Structure to design on (232 residues):
């Protein structure tokens, strides 16, 4: 479904991601792992069109989307759930959800009902301001807003950041559920244990480069990964 070919993205003269090639098959849940500053968010923002690569190509469903902007990529089914949630705090929960449906208004009610069924707490909070929600509820809202766009591929960027461990685990199970229901997912996470627990495959990024990739179980058992990320 998604193929990155020798992708390099720069901030001025600084090369943030360096010749990255990776693939995601339809129906997969693939983790992208690395420390702060490794280039994970830049990679996600390049895939969704917020950054343009200087070198390389992005293929989605056998179509070259490298030159397309973010709106065109959303229309093709690529939706980004950003780090930090990026909600509209002075707008109601229901309005935040509607903001995610701007490319598929015809499906608004159907998708709204699906999101509220997935996150019942948001049904109780739908008339509250998004900024009044707890951290976990705000992350539910961010995920729900992403689902309002009928995504074929969802890019999750650090969804567990700042959350209590039990809430983080619950949200990871929601992401796994979405994958089990057929959504293709790329998951960027610093919580390596949680990410590899629900993923089928993983890529490890250091200093803008992929240094290791493979089956999630094999990565969890890899001694180098254990030492660097799992406290082994």
């Amino acid at each position: 479904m998604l193929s990155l070919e020798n992708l390099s993205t720069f901030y001025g003269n600084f090369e943030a991601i360096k010749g990255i090639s990776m693939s995601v098959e339809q129906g997969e849940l693939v983790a992208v792992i690395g420390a702060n500053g490794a280039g994970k968010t830049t990679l996600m923002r390049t895939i969704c069109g917020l950054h343009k690569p200087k070198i390389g190509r992005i293929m989605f469903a056998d179509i070259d989307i490298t030159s397309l902007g973010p709106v065109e990529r959303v229309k093709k089914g690529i939706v980004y759930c950003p780090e930090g949630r990026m909600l509209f705090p002075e707008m109601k929960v229901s309005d935040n959800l509607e903001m995610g449906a701007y490319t598929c208004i015809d499906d608004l009610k159907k998708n709204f009902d699906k999101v509220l069924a997935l996150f019942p707490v948001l049904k109780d909070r739908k008339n509250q301001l998004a900024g009044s929600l707890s951290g976990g509820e705000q992350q539910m809202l961010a995920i729900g807003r992403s689902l309002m766009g009928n995504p074929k591929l969802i890019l999750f960027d650090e969804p567990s950041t700042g959350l209590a461990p039990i809430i983080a685990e619950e949200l990871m199970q929601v992401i796994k559920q979405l994958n089990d229901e057929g959504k293709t997912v790329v998951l960027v996470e610093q919580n390596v244990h949680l990410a590899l627990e629900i993923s089928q495959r993983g890529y490890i990024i250091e200093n803008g480069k992929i240094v290791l990739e493979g089956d999630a179980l094999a990565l969890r058992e890899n001694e180098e990964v254990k030492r660097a990320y799992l406290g082994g």
In short: The first helix runs from residue 40 to 48. The chain has a mean pLDDT of 93. The longest strand covers residues 14-24.
